């Protein structure tokens, strides 16, 4: 399953991570595009756990399916008439639950149906008056999907390219719309980051609706999400993390 924007995504996410040295001491370990078999991914997560990074960014792009409350498609071959091999969201959660409780993650996903892929407790939503945003409990958590064996033990902030019922879009020239907008946005307060991500992706969609060849349907949406477990207020010593423009750096450094 070809990814037309994969090369651009790599450039864009590395640009965002390294600009202005906003994440001091960050070591980037690209995963070989050929190593996307299910067994390779499981081995890579295990190696990351053994490295005991303390804090880590995880960037995931590729293909996703809506089945099983979200699934990530691996590069395993499959026979005609059979569906692709996937790693279900609950399987990813189980892999991440093996990390030390003191580990902290900022996870960025640019694949279809990845909204709250890790079934985190809170979602950041703009207020109705348009001024700022607030944390609300997610539907997945309220329905009990965050309990038992499929619950993360480590804090995580998740930036997702779309809601769980939406696709993400890309071009070979820009890469994934979400990753491209993120690379140009920098780091802001979380409400401002969410606002700019959604506005930037909307601009990409507006252009894509006007393409002469293969325009996207007018009713298609892609709505970036910010989810967290627990809220940054609970795992950072900040008075109001929603007003802190350096909150991502502080999550990474553990301040």
Write the H/E string, N to C.
HHEEEEHEEEHEEEHHEHH
Q: What is the radius of gyration computed over CA atoms, rounded to a whole number of angstroms?
A: 18 Å
* Assembly form of the protein: single chain
* Gross geometry: globular
What portion of the residues fall into strands of 2 or more residues?
Answer: 15-25%
**Uncertain regions: pLDDT < 50 for 5+ in a row?**
none
Report the mean per-residue pLDDT as an integer.
Answer: 90
Query: How much helicity do the residues have?
Result: 25-40%
CATH architecture verdict? 3-Layer(aba) Sandwich
Number of domains: 1
Quick one: biggest sheet? 6 strands, mixed
Total DSSP helices: 8
| Category from helices, strands and their pairing | alpha+beta
Please tell me about this protein's structure.
The protein is of the alpha+beta class and 255 residues long. The protein has a single domain (6-253), classed as Rossmann fold (3-Layer(aba) Sandwich). 31% of the residues lie in helices and 18% in strands. It has eight helices and eleven strands. It has helices at residues 6-18, 38-51, 89-96, 139-142, 177-185, 190-209, 232-235, 247-253; strands at 55-61, 64-65, 71-73, 86-88, 104-110, 122-126, 133-137, 156-160, 170-171, 175-176, 225-229. It has a six-stranded mixed sheet. Strands 2-3-4 form a three-stranded antiparallel sheet. A two-stranded antiparallel sheet has the order 9-10. The protein starts with 5 loop residues before the first helix and ends with a helix.
């Amino acid at each position: 399953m070809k990814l037309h924007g994969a090369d651009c995504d790599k450039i864009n996410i590395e640009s965002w991570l390294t600009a202005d040295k906003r994440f001091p001491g960050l070591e980037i370990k690209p995963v070989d595009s050929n190593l996307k078999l299910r067994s390779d991914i499981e081995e890579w997560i295990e190696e990351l756990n053994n490295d005991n990074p303390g804090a880590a960014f995880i960037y995931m792009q590729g293909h996703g399916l809506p089945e099983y409350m979200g699934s990530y498609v691996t590069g395993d071959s499959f026979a005609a008439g059979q569906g692709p091999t996937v790693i279900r969201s609950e399987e990813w959660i189980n892999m991440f639950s093996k990390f030390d409780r003191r580990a902290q993650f900022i996870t960025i996903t640019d694949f279809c149906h990845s909204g709250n892929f890790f079934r985190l407790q809170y979602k950041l939503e703009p207020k109705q008056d348009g001024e700022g945003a607030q944390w609300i409990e997610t539907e997945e958590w309220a329905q009990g999907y965050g309990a038992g064996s499929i619950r993360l033990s480590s804090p995580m902030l998740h930036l997702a390219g779309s809601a769980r019922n939406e696709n993400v879009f890309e071009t070979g020239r820009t890469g994934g719309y979400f990753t491209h907008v993120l690379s140009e946005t920098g780091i802001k307060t979380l409400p401002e980051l969410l606002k700019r991500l959604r506005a930037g992706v909307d601009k990409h969609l507006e252009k894509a609706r006007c393409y002469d060849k293969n325009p996207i349907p007018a009713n298609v949406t892609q709505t970036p999400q910010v989810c967290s477990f627990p809220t940054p207020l609970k795992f950072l010593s900040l008075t109001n993390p929603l007003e802190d423009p350096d909150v991502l750096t502080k999550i990474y450094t553990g301040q």
